[in-house]
Design brief:
6-stranded mixed β-sheet; alpha/beta; 547 residues; single chain
Length: 547
């Protein structure tokens, strides 16, 4: 126990000197041998061109064409790999000339930037062969057979790029792409033209190749491995809990692919001392189902989990409104108008709060007076109104809850947990708010909050079954279809069981559907859980008439 406390104290001391996690940067290739790279590219271009000719030949047999396609794709993969080793894709030049003995090839980069069905290499900082991405242990790769070479296109995050493509992840975009190179017929005395396409298989599962519709190869798991399963996102877990101010500016919804107005956003919201990497398996399950893949686009909400639930709910609400304003300003995108939210633990409470009109019930859970009677600054009063008085987001049409403490968790009331909350350093703005309330307005606070002090304004405090806001929240019916996934750890009676963090009596709802799974609280990656999410997403499509 002493060692555990010392470890927590040491970790907190180390973290306090750190800012928010820093995304890795893309560096120029180290001492590239341009001459050797060009020779290697030329050799592989020649192999690809000869194989392409066999693939297009009317006299070639099916077996010969199949063998030629394998050679073509292997050669194209090496072209991309060697070219990427010599320079970053954004520095490639369209019309680049590669020579081999008596043959020349001129590579044209397609298309011009801005086409959602294709991505120009000039927009990317790295091109990574999907086959070279090492997946997490136990991960099942989602692969489509077809023509081309699956690649991951990485675009490093920047303020300018984020302004152009809102909700771009902080660690950059990792795009699902398929490389196809088309060769023009040889022309005497001229370099043979080659056209490099990077298709987006999420928008264009088939491509027009030499006048024929051709199904594209794709690897949907490799980009998500790079985007989610990394140290960068995991770094937000503990810092976001203990030092919320350090990550408050990054509190936002992020998307994993280019926005598609037809596909429905599924917003994944993590829980306490957690981060979006937990959704890797659930998101992979969406891409594994062709129907779900064609109809949904996964997003995630990143936030510091040390903040109180109402305050973080306001952050989520604001981020949803900003996403809609930037991506669907007219409010008529069919996907955006049928959004689904999936929340784990505290994230489920945040999601639930997006679907209700608060009225004055949440305000009365905190205060026994009208807002105007509080002796606080105008800024503090506006903050309180934003977090406790709000309207529902009408475009959220379904909720999926995973081990959510709707009625709180008794773990929040344990002495050791209460003492550990003293390590949480609230943002300056929140400290000012709490100080203003506690100094001049004690008599206006409800009795429980009066006794708790600042504990009632922390995330762990708002997860206590004794917190009055939970009672007010549970008095509000959930107005959209909803589904609960409840953990039962160990054997025994269901009604008295728990997932070791949240009791069944708290995660159970009398409304909606319910699935009980034999796991502890952190079960989001279990196959029964991801299968249930997929099942409910299919149900959503059926009820919308899209399936």
């Amino acid at each position: 126990m002493l060692f555990s406390r010392l470890s927590c104290a040491l970790t907190a001391t180390l973290l306090v000197s750190c800012g928010s996690p820093k995304a890795p940067t893309v560096r120029e290739p180290w001492l590239p041998n341009l001459g050797l790279s060009e020779k290697l590219i030329s050799v592989q271009l020649d192999k690809a061109a000869q194989a392409w000719d066999v693939m297009q030949s009317d006299s070639a047999t099916r077996a010969e064409k199949r063998q030629a396609e394998n050679v073509y794709e292997g050669a194209l993969a090496l072209v991309i790999k060697n070219w990427s080793r010599s320079s970053l894709p954004r520095k490639w030049e369209t019309g680049s000339l590669f020579e081999m003995r008596d043959r020349q090839y001129q590579v044209h980069l397609q298309p011009a930037p801005g086409n959602p069905e294709e991505i120009s290499p000039l927009m990317l900082d790295r091109l990574i062969l999907a086959q070279d991405v090492r997946l997490a242990k136990g991960a099942t790769p989602v692969i489509d057979a077809g023509l081309g070479v699956p690649v991951v296109g990485q675009a490093q995050h920047s303020k300018a790029l984020a302004a152009k493509y809102p909700m771009m992840p902080l660690n950059g975009a990792f795009l699902t792409l398929t490389a196809v190179m088309e060769f023009d017929p040889p022309a005497p005395g001229k370099p043979r033209a080659a056209h490099l396409h990077l298709y987006n298989p999420l928008r264009k599962a088939e491509a027009q190749v030499k006048g024929e519709r051709t199904h594209l190869a794709a690897n949907y798991t490799a980009p998500k491995e790079l985007a989610l399963n990394n140290r960068f996102l995991r770094g937000f877990s503990l810092i976001g809990l203990l030092f919320p101010e350090k990550t408050l500016d990054e509190s936002e919804i992020y998307r994993l692919e280019l926005y598609d107005p037809k596909r429905i956003p599924v917003v994944f919201v993590h829980g306490l001392m957690s981060d979006p990497h937990i959704w890797y398996e659930a998101i992979n399950a969406i891409y594994a189902d062709p129907v779900l893949r064609a109809n949904y686009q996964p997003w995630y909400f990143l936030y510091p989990s040390g903040m109180a639930v109402p305050a973080t709910s306001w952050q989520l609400r604001r981020s949803l409104e900003e996403a809609r304003a930037k991506l669907d300003p007219e409010g008529d995108d069919p996907g955006m108008n049928n959004m689904v939210m999936v929340g784990h633990s505290m994230g489920g409470l945040l999601s639930r709060m997006q679907t209700i009109d608060s009225g004055d019930s949440l305000w009365k859970a905190y205060f026994n007076c009208e807002p105007e009677k509080l002796m606080v600054s105008n800024h503090t009063l506006e903050r309180l109104k934003d977090t406790l008085e709000f309207k529902k987001q009408p475009y959220i049409k379904r909720l999926i809850f995973i081990t959510v403490p709707h009625k709180g968790s008794t773990m929040a009331d344990r002495g050791i947990v209460y003492r550990l909350t003293r390590l949480i350093k609230l943002p300056t703005d929140s400290l000012v708010l709490a100080k203003e309330i506690m100094t001049g307005n004690i008599d206006y606070l409800t009795p429980q909050l009066r006794d708790w002090g600042t504990f009632g304004f922390l995330s762990i405090g708002t997860l206590s079954p004794k917190h009055p806001y939970l009672k007010a929240l549970n008095a509000q019916p959930i107005p959209v279809p909803h589904h609960s996934i409840v953990g039962q750890y160990g054997e025994g009676e269901l009604l008295t069981s728990s997932d070791r963090v949240v009791p069944y009596s708290s995660s159970h709802l009398d409304t909606g559907t319910e699935l009980v799974v034999p796991y502890w609280h952190g079960c989001v990656e279990k196959p029964e859980v991801t299968a249930e999410i997929a099942k409910r997403l299919r149900q959503h499509l059926r009820e919308l008439g899209r399936l």
